[in-house]
Specification:
By secondary structure, the protein is of the alpha+beta class. The protein has a two-stranded antiparallel ribbon. A hairpin with a 2-residue loop joins strand 1 and strand 2.
């Protein structure tokens, strides 16, 4: 049977399931300095030499990744809008050439 351990900071009992997963842990979840992590599947390589791997990120890294991804998608949307404007301008010019 597992012995009850107390957190070195708050002196509260550490959850038995935490002790089962991490037998040498000295802190409870609330006092732990390690934050939650997030796994993201990502594709690496090019053409026929590609693979997918799980990348483990800190919360700050995940926020930066999502911000860059949003900026990129906004940029892609702007390019599409510019392409649509170019088509629209060409349509106007075609009508003027007939005059």
């Amino acid at each position: 049977m597992m012995e009850n351990k107390l957190c070195i900071y708050c002196k509260q009992e550490i959850n038995p399931l935490r002790l089962k997963a991490l037998p040498n842990v000295k802190t409870c979840v609330d006092c732990s300095t390690t934050g939650a992590k997030r796994g993201m599947p990502m594709m690496f390589g090019e053409k026929d030499d590609t693979w997918t791997d799980m990348v483990i990120m800190e919360p700050e890294d995940l926020d930066r990744y999502e911000n860059v991804k949003k900026q990129k998608s906004r940029f892609d949307d702007e390019e599409e809008e510019e392409d649509n404007l170019d088509d629209w301008d060409n349509t106007l010019l075609d009508g003027l050439e007939d005059m």
